[in-house]
Amino acid sequence: MTARRPSSDSPLLTARRVVVKVGSALLVDQEAGRLNRSWLESLIEDLVRLRKRGQQLILVSSGAIALGRRQLGLARGVLRLEESQAAAAVGQIRLAHAYKELLEEKGITVAQVLLTLEDSERRRRFLNARATLEALLALGALPVINENDTVATAEIRYGDNDRLAARVAQMTSADCLVLLSDVEGLFTADPHMDAGAELIDRVMRVTPEIEAMAGRSASSVGSGGMATKILAAKIAVAAGCHMCIAAGHHRHPVRRIEEGARCTWFVPGATPIAARKQWIAGTLRPAGAIAIDAGALRALQEGKSLLPAGVVRALGRFDRGDTVSVIGPDGAEIARGITAYSDTDAARIMGRRSSEIEGILGYRGRDEMIHRDDLVILQTDPKPPQPIEAAS
Ligand code: GLU
What we know:
This protein is an alpha/beta fold. It has two domains: 7-272, 3-Layer(aba) Sandwich (Carbamate kinase); 282-377, PUA domain (Archaeosine Trna-guanine Transglycosylase, Chain: A, domain 4). 38% of the residues lie in helices and 18% in strands. The chain contains 15 helices and 15 strands. It has helices at 11-14, 24-27, 37-52, 64-71, 81-105, 117-121, 123-138, 161-171, 208-216, 225-238, 253-258, 272-281, 294-301, 343-349, 357-361; strands at residues 17-22, 28-29, 34-35, 56-61, 110-115, 142-147, 176-181, 202-203, 242-247, 264-266, 288-292, 311-316, 323-327, 333-338, 375-377. The strands form three sheets. Strands 5-6-4-1-7-9-10-8 form an eight-stranded mixed beta sheet, with helices on both faces. It has a five-stranded mixed beta sheet with strand order 12-11-13-14-15. A two-stranded antiparallel sheet has the order 2-3. The longest helix is centred in the first third of the chain and has 25 residues, at 81-105. Mean pLDDT is 88; it is low at 218-222 and 381-392. Glutamic acid (GLU) binds next to α4 and β6.
């Protein structure tokens, strides 16, 4: 069950975009309250390798509170919320500094991004955060993300970076998420208590049974624990992203996973794009509709994006980021997609070339009204409707 798998099919090697989450217990020496520098150097070597292979990378790093608390004389005991926030304010700057120093030595530009729960739950903020991360990746920078602990209050706080990392993976359509933690993976029981506990190396579906195992499994000392890792897994696989829980305390923790070290992989049923499209197609009530002309209809059927030029009308009220119906020239709904413009902006730019958008709206938005990755052509049923048989 725990045999090493050949490494060539590891999602870590085949992924286009990888999110790696590093827990506080790995980064910070709990006794000294200092950064585990040599461990971090070995992690960074792994990350450099990954980027050299052409993979895009985002790092989600905890450790701000753990690094900052000693500095403020808060070394012992449970912190009150405002004390953790103060510790985070002191620790985050140290954390960012360490990443900058170590990554820039390797020629990598590092970008600090601090997110709150609202940035991933509120649509407009989600879109903004996503656009910023996309821009950073396109420009070759390495985003290093943490929760914005200093402003997040108890109710609007993730509190753990496992779910934050899964949201980041979902937001950026990453295909692989690695949670480096102080546990080797998901066990059938607590391995410290039960000699028969076995590591599960692959989870194809997060069933209630798997969730129950998380309760029994060895819990990590970070704020996450196994329960939040399972919640993270649910978010990741629903977004078409592979997720791995692995022990991170060895040097070169990412390379070890590539080489087949023991860990638990959560396997999604679809790719990130397919998962996103399923979600769009399944929207129960599109916010509004966009009517298109025959030329745009042909373009969509060929797999192209919907440009403002092909739009003839915006119907209903919708905002940027809403799911809308796309209506063909005969009035039938032919597709659904996420619009890049609100109904009012759509009405102003319809029928116009993309190069004119900035002049009309005063800002430079996307060239497409609906990008093809955000668009699903609805399958029409070729069969005539079947007569309904009376239930016996
Ligand atoms: N955001 C917290 C920090 O940087 C850590 C949360 C976690 O442990 O997952 O200290």
